[in-house]
Amino acid sequence: MDSSNLNNIMREITPLSNRDCFYIADRRKTEFTYPIHCHIEYELNFTEHASGVRRVVGDSEEIIGDYDLVLITGKELEHVWEQHECVSKDIREITIQFSPTLFSQSFIDKNQFSSIRKMFERAQCGLCFPMQAIMKVYNWLDKLASEEQGFYAVINFLRILYELSLYEDARILSSSSFAKIETFSDSIQVQKVQKYITEHFREEIRLNTLAHIAGMSPVSFSRFFRLRAGKTFSEYIIDIRIGFASRLLVDSTRNIAEICYDCGFNNLSNFNRIFRRKKGCSPKEFRENYRKKKIII
Questions:
Q1: For residue 232, how far is the Cα from the chain centroid?
Q2: pLDDT beneath 50: ranges in the chain
Q3: What is the dihedral of CA 171, 177, 182, 187, to 10 degrees?
Q4: What per-residue confidence (pLDDT) applies to 185?
Q5: Which of 66, 82, 178, 292 is most buried (most C-beta within 10 Å)?
Q6: Is residue 41 within 8 Å of residue 98, measured between CB atoms?
Q7: 3-state helix, strand and coil shares in percent for the chain, rounded to the nearest 5
């Protein structure tokens, strides 16, 4: 394990060999004890009978149910499953790790892999799959670790990835700004607006300015952006600012007021109120909770 990074987030050195397509660990356990960490390998993590566990992926914290399946492809995206309120003595965890280079660019760019490619892009912020998807791949996951023929194990693994990639309702977990990932819409107009917001989120951003960038009237732009981005432009700006603020709370020792103003908020009480609404805790509590998870190895 390597803990030399500045944030004391443990960077995991996985057992994955350069000669293998993936590494799989199928564990029966009574508790989660592994600290928060990150690694360059992609990871598909399945948990069963772990209701009450707290899952942390980037700046997302959720209490999971009996079944949970998450794909993480962000190399600097911190994640951990914590015991929290789980009392189960029959937890099962299947972790599959594979190299980002498993699929060469010329291979993953083929039409037949388009859905997997898009899934990998979304999973840079962590991707949580719905129960329907979990039930679809459950039996294949169950048998993957015991497959004695390596070739067939790889074929089954590809099948799992493909089936999961068909579920467009898989939910993104971490904010893109916290995960240090740029995510853009398919729309050229929205891309221009998103790029402007990313570069100017610390400043006051007016509707008329964004509408002008998109080449629309303010009313038309507001409707168009919400349709294409899935949220209003003001909600989008707030999410970007909160994501960057969360990252600064984790990565720096700057005081909360400085972070508030540096991320485009012009009022500390308003920042605290919005942060609590988005994260379920105050900025101070968010920082303290993250520091509790950090371990120096």
A1: 21
A2: 1-6, 295-297
A3: 70
A4: 64
A5: 178
A6: yes
A7: 45, 15, 35
Taking the model in full, what pTM does it have?
A: 0.79
**Which sign does the torsion angle of CA 159, 162, 168, 172 carry?**
positive
Calpha distance 63→52 (Å, rounded)? 6
Domains of the chain by start residue, with CATH: 10-176 (2.60.120.10), 178-293 (1.10.10.60)
pLDDT score for 10 = 58
- Taking the C-alpha atoms of residue 54 and residue 51, their distance in angstroms, rounded to an integer, is 9
Phi, psi of 43 (to 5 degrees): -140, 130
pLDDT of residue 181: 79
Asked if 163 and 193 count as a contact pair (C-beta separation under 8 A), the reply is no
Report residue 92 as tokens. Answer: 């099962």
Residue 95's nearest CA partner among 133, 33, 162, 42 is: 42
pLDDT, position 145: 78
Element (H, E) at 81: strand 79-82
d(CA 266, CA 200): 14
